[in-house]
Amino acid sequence: MQNLFDLSGKTAIVTGGSRGLGKAIAKGLHEAGVEVVIMGTNNRVLDTANELFENGAPVYGVIADFSNLKSVEKAFESAISKLGTVDILVNNAGMQIRHPAAEFPIEDWEKVLNVNLSAAFVMAQLAGRAMLEARSGKIINIASLLSFSGGLTVPAYAASKGGIAQLTKALANEWAKDGINVNAIAPGYMDTDNIAALKKDEVRNRQLLERIPMGRYGKPEDIVGTVIYLASEASQYVNGTIVTVDGGWMAR
Ligand SMILES: NC(=O)c1ccc[n+]([C@@H]2O[C@H](COP(=O)([O-])OP(=O)(O)OC[C@H]3O[C@@H](n4cnc5c(N)ncnc54)[C@H](O)[C@@H]3O)[C@@H](O)[C@H]2O)c1
Questions:
Q1: How much is the average pLDDT of 181-209?
Q2: Active-site residue, 237 included
Q3: How remote is the CA of residue 23 from the centroid of ligand 1, in Å?
Q4: Is the pLDDT of residue 210 over 80?
């Protein structure tokens, strides 16, 4: 039987691949035989690329700060110059800024929306054009539990992740007929820098762990199987959906 999950020889761009979930995703794709470009804001992304590329298909690093949208196009061109083409795009880069809504500075709002939503759209547009020509491609957007609920003191993040869920559906509606699958993964509380502030708060930490049916935070590697599935033939008829990988949080 054909291996439905075979990704060998494919190419992928993973934004925000220098640490956390993006690094685990890049590692998983690399181990599946995929040639990967990871993107990040500083030199660390080059170190991570070297660390991941011990053997097998190459892993390249590209430095780009998505708070400036012009850098997204440059980063994409740089990735294509290394890969030749892109079969899989994982829009993973994301950031968090917390303030009460009434005091949220508009500069911080714009930064979060640029990095978490607008950059993902521009990257999907650029990759999508190549995928439309090839009549095949897989786009995986990293959403959040805040694609479904509002959170506290994180209005920009919640708006950006709600937007990611809707963007996933909008792109799937347009491109499904052209051989492109656009889906999202909504991780629960995963143990990365992203939730460091929550973990430091003793009360919040206990409340969160009590609320997660599996009783633990997710590990970055917990997301990899779902990425492989959504990047492979196994998910060929899955389009425009948001898969939760949350230890059961949404079932509570
Ligand atoms: N950790 C969680 O609990 C959790 C839950 C739901 C969703 N997510 C989402 O998963 C994704 C990865 O987050 P993580 O937990 O690995 O966090 P992280 O902070 O460890 O990693 C964030 C990544 O985004 C990149 N990034 C940040 N600002 C950027 C900018 N201005 N330009 C370009 N890249 C930038 C960083 O280089 C880094 O690789 C994010 O989209 C985040 O919103 C995380």
A1: 95
A2: no
A3: 10
A4: yes
More confident residue, 14 or 197: 14
3-class SS at 190?
strand
Does ligand 1 lie within 6 Å of residue 235's CB atom?
A: no
pLDDT in tens, 106-122: 999 999 999 999 999 99
Phi, psi of 184 (to 5 degrees): -130, 155
Residue-range domain boundaries for the chain: 11-243
- Band (pLDDT 50/70/90 cuts) for residue 176 is very high
Spatial separation of the C-alpha atoms in residues 252 and 250, rounded to whole Å: 6
Task: State pTM to two decimals.
Answer: 0.98
Burial 150-174 (b: 16+ CB within 10 A, else e): eeeebbbbbbbbbbbbebbbebbee
Sign of CA dihedral 207, 241, 76, 162: negative
Alpha-helix residue ranges (DSSP H) falling in 59-189: 70-83, 106-113, 119-134, 155-175
Using the mean position of ligand 1's atoms as its centre, give its distance from the Cα of residue 3 in Å: 31
CATH of 11-243, one of 3.40.50.300, 3.30.470.20, 3.20.20.100, 3.40.50.720: 3.40.50.720
